[in-house]
Amino acid sequence: MERSELLVRRIPEGTVIDHIDAGRGLLVLKALGIDGTDGGQVTIALNVPSGKFRKKDIVKIENRFLKEDDTNKLAVIAPKATINKIRNYKLVEKHRVALPNEIERIFRCPNPDCITNSTEKIESVMAVLDKSGNILQCKYCRRLQDVDQLKYKK
Question: 66: how many CB neighbours lie within 10 A of its CB?
Answer without folding.
Answer: 18
